[in-house]
Write a structure and sequence with these properties.
The protein is α/β, with parallel strands linked by helices. The chain has 5 domains: 153 residues, Arc Repressor Mutant, subunit A; 88 residues, Orthogonal Bundle (Arc Repressor Mutant, subunit A), CATH 1.10.10; 63 residues, no CATH class; 74 residues, no CATH class; 210 residues, no CATH class. The protein contains 25 helices and 23 strands. It is found in: Nucleus. It comes from Caenorhabditis latens. Keywords: DNA-directed RNA polymerase, Nucleus, Transcription.
């Protein structure tokens, strides 16, 4: 009797010892490890204990990656079904709300594909499990039927049927903005003589907005504070609200998205070079300037009225729909023939000048059809320009004549034109370089401060060199950013425009094409984006679309692409930019490059240096709108090196810099006489 009791106690102790060791191993334990950790148990006793625990469903055997079998505590709910169904259900139950992919089920259960699919179908039929399609991927995950999937799978409150609910987001942004604006207005009215109290009282906590949304039942679904914070972050980026360091927010003062300066007729007038007091084209006789003057007076009256109403110095700007300059219509100016309309010009003298210019042009033509302007020819042109200056008092008639096409026929311009004249580089670029050397080269700052100070330093150099006045770059607005371009002053046989990263928006490209058409110039458009949907149809309206990404190297690599309104990191085909330009497009000269390459730009910085591969292969970019994305680890050093090299080499200038977490800038190639001659000379 005593021996039986001793044997019984030994079995219970063996099971307890094995169970304790397996419970301590969260990922399970293999047989060899269990043996080494139970040296006091005989092999038979250990095996009997394991069999007993498996039989009572306290332990389960799972196959780890690599085929190794492990003992693990059975935490799954016992269901009625086959052994395969119990194993699969246990794996799905362990994944909880995160779900589990079919490949993970196959590895964990050791079942073949046919058995696994049959078991999953049986469990779905019994309503024990369900499938969830994760946002942003085609993978199906399996989850216990009664559980709600994790937000990482569904996208959370702002997704419906795996699609971003943009209408819901816009509604919430509007509600938050209206609530904050109401609080700001109440703060101003309650403290008419205390600006500091107005400011402090206008700040609110996000919890107050969440409570307001809940009480007013704006949504039929619960909105967590985390969800609201995501909405407020969007509103901050949109510029409708601002956030303090303590987390409180307030509505921003209404701002005009368009500067009144861009509505001044002189900024877009095609004959501004010929406009002078006392002439046929003059400010005194300009109907559009009169309309603009009336609009400015109206705006001034509105601002004075608003100042009295607000009694605050926060902002004196009005909304776009209240700004008369925004609605100001500026039709095209008629082309004026100076020979007919200006009584100070003798038509016979101009006719003689035209005959001389035609004769000179015939003498300088070569047999292959190209034209070479020699030094002597340049002196003759300067002499003829002086004769015309004496007639109408113009200091730059040769250029004005080319723009109007009236006084003399311009010399044709193409990529093969040979220039044997002096350097055409504008003097203001030298002044800009001097400023850049002071700001970027003669300073010892780290890469972080260099990035933070870049916009301010760049804008100061723009102002010092009067870039806005000298470059005469025109703005072209798309959905969320401003692009820039200079129109050619020379008659060109071809204008090449390349867009890398279309982003389902060609508003700016279409505006540029329209402006070029107005001056009688055609544009050849090429666009590349790895996402076909939305990009192919749009870009094909203006040019040729290519369904791939363009980068420094060819291959299959990760890129950030716009899908369903969200940027996602996916693997896409990349084509070498050198091969793309020279072989696919067959273009050596690119007049305009608009690049939003989603971090691929960092790999292409060195192609803009002198003696780079681009130089060796004879590729030329004249103008470039570039977005340098918010640097990751080590990329701020790359950006600093890139900017310093541009300043040292004095080839590319960068202007109109803007920091929107990403750094946007516009570059011009002053190192290419082709570019300078085409857009400045």
């Amino acid at each position: 009797m005593a021996s039986v009791k001793e044997e019984l106690i030994s079995e219970v102790e063996s099971e307890a010892q094995v169970m304790q060791i397996v419970q301590a191993a969260l990922e399970g334990i293999d047989m060899d490890a269990l043996t080494s950790m139970t040296p006091g148990l005989p092999q038979v006793a250990r095996q009997n204990a394991i069999n007993s625990l498996l039989g009572s469903k306290k332990l389960v055997i799972q196959q780890a990656p690599g085929g190794l079998l492990r003992l693990k505590v059975n935490t799954s709910q016992q269901i009625a079904g086959t052994e395969e169904e119990q194993v699969i259900y246990g794996l799905i139950e362990e994944s909880k709300t995160r779900g589990i992919w079919i490949k993970e089920l196959r590895d964990g259960s050791g079942l073949n594909q046919l058995q696994l699919r049959k078991t999953l179908k049986s469990l779905e039929t019994k309503k024990l499990i369900k499938t969830i399609k994760a946002v942003g991927t085609s993978k199906k995950c399996y989850i216990v039927f009664d559980l709600e999937p994790d937000m990482s799978l569904t996208g959370g409150t702002f997704y419906s049927d795996q699609q971003l609910d943009s209408e819901l987001i816009n509604t919430l942004i509007s509600v938050c903005g209206s609530y904050a604006s109401s609080r700001r207005k109440h703060a101003i009215e309650s403290n008419p003589n205390n600006i500091q109290m107005q400011r402090e009282s206008s700040y609110i906590r996000p919890q107050e907005i969440a409570q307001f949304i809940t009480e007013k039942r704006v949504l039929n679904v619960p909105l967590s504070l985390e969800d609201l914070e995501r909405i407020l972050e969007v509103a901050v980026l949109d510029g409708t609200i601002e956030r303090r360091a303590d987390g409180k927010i307030r509505a921003c003062a209404p701002r005009s998205s368009i500067s009144p300066l861009v509505s001044v007729p002189c900024a877009v007038c095609p004959v501004v070079e010929d406009c002078r007091p006392g002439y046929v084209i003059s400010p005194q006789s300009c109907d559009y300037m009169k309309n603009c003057d009336d609009a400015f007076k109206d705006l001034a009256a509105r601002l004075q009225k608003k100042e009295k109403q607000d009694k605050t110095n926060d902002s004196l700007l009005v909304n776009d729909d209240e700004n008369p300059l925004v609605q100001l219509q500026m039709p095209e100016r008629p082309v004026v023939d100076l020979k007919q309309d200006d009584p100070r010009i003798d038509p016979t003298q101009i006719a003689t000048l035209e005959e001389d210019a035609t004769k000179k042009e015939k003498e300088t033509k070569k047999g292959d059809g190209s034209q070479v302007v020699g030094v002597s020819g340049q002196e003759k042109l300067e002499k003829e320009s002086g004769r015309l200056d004496s007639l109408i008092g113009s200091k730059d008639v040769s250029r004005n004549a080319q723009l109007r096409g009236r006084v003399a026929e311009p010399i044709s311009f193409n990529n093969e034109t040979v220039f044997q004249v002096q350097d055409f580089t504008p003097k203001f670029f030298s002044k800009w370089v001097s400023c850049g050397e002071r700001k970027y080269l003669n300073t010892n700052v780290n890469a972080i401060k260099f990035w933070d100070d870049f916009k301010g330093n760049s804008n100061e150099c723009d102002k010092e060199a009067q870039i806005l006045q000298n470059m005469k770059a025109l703005p072209f607005q798309n959905r969320d950013e401003m692009k820039y371009a200079i129109l050619p002053v020379q008659k060109s046989s071809k204008n090449v425009f390349v867009t890398l990263g279309i982003g389902q928006d060609i508003t700016a490209e279409e505006a540029f094409a329209k402006k070029m058409k107005e001056i009688g110039q055609d544009v050849t458009f090429y666009g590349a984006d790895p996402i076909v949907k939305g990009n192919s149809e749009q870009y094909s309206r203006i040019g040729k679309f290519f369904p791939f990404a363009v980068g420094a190297k060819a291959g299959y690599s990760t890129a950030s692409v716009l899908l369903n309104g969200n940027y996602l990191d996916v693997s896409v085909v990349h084509v070498d930019i050198y091969y793309f330009l020279s072989e696919v497009l067959g273009e050596k000269f690119v007049d305009h490059l608009w690049m939003d390459a989603e971090y691929a730009e960092y790999g292409m910085f060195d192609m803009f240096y002198k003696n780079s591969r681009m130089d060796r292969e004879g590729l030329t970019f004249c103008q470039m709108s570039l977005e340098v994305h918010n640097p990751k680890q080590g990329q701020k050093e790359q950006f600093m090196e890139f900017i310093k090299n541009l300043i040292k080499e004095k080839q590319y200038g960068f202007f109109f810099s803007e920091n929107v977490s990403h750094m946007r800038m516009w570059l011009f190639n002053f190192g290419s006489q082709y570019c300078v001659k085409k857009f400045f000379a």
